[in-house]
Design a protein that fits this description.
- The chain has 436 residues and is of the alpha+beta class.
- It contains eleven helices and ten strands.
- A five-stranded mixed beta sheet has the order 2-1-10-5-6.
- The chain is elongated, with a radius of gyration of 27 Å.
- The protein binds ligand MTE and molybdenum atom.
- Ligand MTE binds next to loops.
């Protein structure tokens, strides 16, 4: 006779004594909270990144109904995007061991036969496929986008955005079905632990604790019918998962804290340009060389900033810009990839003063910013009116008391409070205020 226990569809195939509702419930409850935070911080990131005014800077093409919630991202507090995106990326990376352990803990269910016992069961299994597939997709695309320059067919942003909605819909359905059981399991486990620890009964007439853990009915499909002898306790296994998460957290979070702590971010992407020391010695995203910006392009004799508004166009050299009223702002750069800098001291011309030069006094409109850079998705950006109006928003010419370095955007770059780094266009060549 064939030994069915050698097929993954047979419960006897799965031998780990760790599997069971207790293990799965704890991990599930951690993910319930964690993934909800990931979803919210992720949606918020799209609102920040996606001004929804210019199709050129709309990183969510055809966002359609899913873009219903997009709003004007505020410019206060200046560390807002450092916080939301630092949380998004750090938490996402920290949750990887929990996600993997959770999937491992329920893997027998994925193989169970028959594929569907009823229509309801079939629907549940399809939703599980979306849940598992969506979860793996979101975590994988997120990590790859942070760690590698570019690996996707099409832009990362719509992929991660659509994926998030599919994943989260399946996640909500799953959470509604399973959270009550998970909470009950964990609560019973805690009560059982307290009783086992030898707490005296509340009253001599109180019913004695049940002889075995009632949360693990022997027929629970997660419990192996033929478990191997344990090599680690459930608590030990949860400790390993938690330890893995802690290690990832400690080797990631430094990139969002910035400053000297950045060096602890061993898992932050490397191989990027070394910013060196001095006033310009902070994180560089894309170097001038990468963007094919040459000294000839940015030389005083050739570079002119072209500013257009309803009153016409003006052209300004760097010397002329330096003669305009210069302002200072202490602002960080916070990249969608999760890293950010501490506040840097920028000096330059207010965007709203430049708007006023071309006929937009008082109430400046949106601006479309274009770089000298010819190729690449980040060579242009559109800023909302509230970002232009903020007195801290600058076309920066200097940073930390020195001229911008070529890698940080010499001769001029945009810096806007609380905005994602991608809106802080470097090597600016043209500003167009108002409707295009
Ligand atoms: N022209 C241009 N500007 C750009 C980019 C770019 O690739 N090209 N990268 C943007 C991104 S994604 C970030 S995070 C910031 C980083 O600025 P930094 O390199 O000065 O730290 O610059 C932004 N400005
Ligand atoms: Mo970025």
């Amino acid at each position: 006779m064939r030994d069915h226990s050698r097929l993954p569809s047979s419960p006897g195939f799965w031998r780990s004594p760790l599997r069971g509702p207790g293990f799965t419930s704890v991990l599930g409850l951690v993910l319930l909270v964690g993934i909800t935070v990931l979803f919210v911080t992720g949606l918020v990131s799209y609102a920040a990144y996606n001004p929804g005014l210019s199709p050129v800077n709309d990183q969510t093409p055809d966002k359609g109904v899913l873009g219903f919630y997009l709003f004007a991202w505020p410019t206060d507090p200046v560390w807002l995007y450092r916080l939301t995106q630092g949380m998004h990326v750090t938490l996402g990376i920290t949750l990887i061991p929990v996600l993997l352990a959770k999937l491992w803990s329920v893997v027998p269910k994925l193989f169970a036969l028959p594929p569907a016992r009823s229509v309801a069961h079939a629907l549940e299994r399809i939703s599980l496929l979306l849940l598992v597939g969506g979860g793996l997709f979101e975590f994988t695309t997120g990590v790859l986008n942070v760690q590698l320059d570019y690996v996707f067919p099409g832009s990362f942003y719509p992929l991660h955005f659509y994926g998030a909605w599919v994943f989260f819909a399946a996640f909500v359905a799953h959470a509604v079905l399973k959270t009550p059981t998970a909470l009950r399991t964990v609560r019973r486990r805690l009560t059982a632990d307290t009783a086992a620890a030898g707490d005296p009964p509340v009253s001599p007439h109180a019913p004695s604790p049940p002889p075995h853990d009632p949360s693990v009915p022997p027929q629970d499909p997660l419990v192996s019918p033929r478990p191997d002898p344990p090599t680690v306790s459930r608590r030990g296994a949860l400790g390993l998962v938690g330890g893995g998460s802690l290690l990832l957290f400690l080797t990631t979070v430094g990139q969002s804290l910035g400053g000297p702590v950045r060096r602890t971010a061993l898992l932050a992407p490397h191989g990027t340009a070394d910013p060196g020391g001095g006033p310009n010695g902070f994180q560089i995203n894309k170097t001038a060389a990468y963007a094919h910006i040459t000294p000839a392009d940015t030389h005083e004799d050739s570079w002119r900033l072209v500013v257009t508004g309803r009153a016409g166009t003006v052209r300004l050299g760097r010397a002329e810009l330096l003669r305009l009223p210069l302002r200072s702002s202490s602002l960080p750069i916070a990249c969608v990839e999760g890293w950010s800098t501490t506040d840097q001291w920028w000096r330059g011309v207010r965007l709203r003063d430049l708007a006023a030069l071309v006929g937009h006094d008082g109430d400046p409109p949106d601006v479309f910013v274009e770089s000298l850079q010819r190729h690449g998705a980040f060579r242009h950006a559109a800023l909302r009116a509230n970002q232009v109006a903020d007195p801290r928003s600058l076309l920066a010419l200097q940073v930390n008391g020195e001229d911008l370095s070529p890698d940080h955007g010499y001769p001029a770059r945009v810096i806007v409070p609380a905005a994602p780094g991608v809106l802080n266009t470097k090597w600016v060549a043209r500003l167009t205020f108002g409707d295009l």
